[in-house]
Amino acid sequence: MRVALVHDWLTGMRGGEKALEVFCELYPDADLFTLVHIPGTTSPVIEARTVRRSAIQLLPFAGRLYREYLPLFPIAVEQFDLDAYDLVISTSHCAAKSVVVTGRARHLCYCLTPMRYAWDQFDAYFGPDRVGTVASALLRPMLAGLARWDRATAGRVHRYLAISQYVARRIALYYNRESTLVYPPVDTEFYAPASNEAAEDVPQLDRPHFLVVSALVPYKRVDLAMMAARRAGVALTVVGNGPERARLEALTGDGVELLGWRSDEEIRDLYRRSTAAILPGEEDFGIVPVEAQACGRPVVALGRGGALDTVIDGDTGVLVPDPSVDSLADSLTRAASITWNPARIRAHAQRFSRERFVTEIRHIVDETLNAPAGQQW
Fold first, then answer.
1. What confidence score (pLDDT) does residue 203 get?
2. Using only C-alpha atoms, what is the Rg of the chain?
3. Are 30 and 24 in contact (CB under 8 A)?
4. pTM value?
5. In sequence order, what are the beta bridge partners of 90?
6. What are the φ and ψ backbone dihedral angles of 64, each rounded to 5 degrees?
């Protein structure tokens, strides 16, 4: 059986890439297709593959400006030659799910989300306050066209796998398709509480210290976390990079710091030392809350989206009722006042382990391949 893996772009190691990494381990001989690949930005398991890139890779400054070529993604992804493959697995939050496969092949889409900016988050990415009034007006019909294409190609997938109940509802709404819930893989062996000896070396902090680990893009609402930390009078460390970094630099100071990106080992250490991790925006799933909980630390998360699958209010964290500075600041104060049970928090996180993911994917692939030809779920 020949297997192809398709991913939107390989420019960093985020939640989608961690799922792709497991697919690469499950199918070591599979070919990997992507729109753009920046070498050295993903894990060794992924980098070891021969990556087949689209023509967008040849465009000027594609590694840095690939998002600017968004209108070309439909054409590019449909040019991938997948005729020789029996099984195609796409990990998609943009265009990967729309690849063209043969009649005999089965296409499983591990759907990270239907593309946000084309459907319900246009203003967060391309609103007048982000790109200017003229650019926003010009982009709106283009993104509306992209949404129509996204819906029209939804039937190219035989079976959708949703990363959360929230994404399952989005798949039903935008694609009119059912999906199977498979939570993303989290390395709960690596992300674990410090040993007793290491824990003794953790310095005592003079005030609560919270942590955000995030790409610095608009919908993540990192600015909200920074303003809420100031309002609550707590310290905050932000780990991440992205197009919002220059704007967020203006919110640093008075215990609020922006570190840029850090290694997995450094991030794990920051989880362990934090009062709690913060998830200030609405996420499709949110890997960070589970990594933090695997380290025995609670999470303060907006009570929407994937956080409703991963955070139990008052038990493994605090769910914030609305995305306002005051509401988040009050939730930070509440989190700092609770005596948490690290063992209980970690036990909850282990529901999202890599081993569980592998078992579920193997079962779903077998079930899909053994179904009658052409069957869709």
1. 52
2. 21
3. yes
4. 0.90
5. 6, 109
6. -105, -30
